[in-house]
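Hi F.,

I've been meaning to write this up properly since the lab meeting, where we talked about keeping a consistent format for the predictions we share between groups. The idea is simple: the sequence comes first, exactly as it goes in, then the structure tokens exactly as they come out, then a line or two of notes. No screenshots and no reformatting. I'm using this chain as the first example so we have something concrete to point to.
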Amino acid sequence: AEAAAAFESLADNHPASAYAADAHLQLGQLHTELGNSERALGHYRLMAQTSDAQDADREALLLMAQVHYNKKNWAQAVPLYRQYLKGAAPGAKTKEVEGLLLTAAWQADSNDPELPALAARCPDHPLVARIRWGLAASAYKSGDWAGAEELVRRHIKDNPHAENLGEARFHRAESLRQLGRTQDAAGAYRHFLSEHKEHPRASQAELRLGALLEERGDLSGAIDAYGRAKGSGERLQSLYSLGRVQERLKNNKKARAAYEGLRALSPRHDPARLSGLLRLALLLELEDKPRAAGPLYSEVLKYAQRGGPTFETARKRLESLTSDKSLLQH
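Output, unedited:
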């Protein structure tokens, strides 16, 4: 308290003194330690105004930024750090301030568009991996597939032992698929599956890979991938897709087996399940088994969206069967 009073007296009574700036510096530091942020900021401003030192105004910016930083007033610290860095010469101190700016900017707004450039200037900063991943996740959620792919690829390259490496590889494959880069996406899914066989998204990746291979005409590869997609969230779609590919190959017996697998699965109203049961019923009709097809059409009508194409096809086929009673006697 006595020291503060002495510095206050010097600063107030001798504002033009060569020691006034130092007094304001000392008072700023004292008030910072006491938690009196506004008074500390005021003295740092006065220090800049009364000092004859060449860089006093820039040092005051840094001191004021630090007050806000220590109080976690990130948004107030950011512009002060930015202003300090304008024209700052390269060196250890500039690097340190860039790191402080990176932390403050990320804390203030994790979606700040300038974060990628800041992260590039501080590649060794401990926050960079989290920042890049956050930006990648944000780009992914917003449908910016090109941005997401670039950020995730950089994350994978720079953090080969990251805990979320599997998730990153899956997201990169998904981004490539959305970009229409089917060959690259297929390779990315394969790499993900080879490195993360037990990952929760492995079954989903197999389903995606199967669809890409089917699109490219690799039906054998598609069958293998669909066959491995056995997760509860993918099984309905994978069985339907498997049956469809087998039909393309004229393997109706194998197609029927795939569609048969849909009978006992839930949810009953799942579009893939109902489409598969419809295909199964049509195959049974082709095999002259209308009595086996009829209950399947009824099942589709029970759960399909009324008026939709699946519903209407099942309705018309069932009406055709029931109008010709002789068919149901086979």
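Notes:
The chain has a mean pLDDT of 90.
The chain has 18 helices and no strands.

If this format works for you, I'll send the rest the same way.

G.
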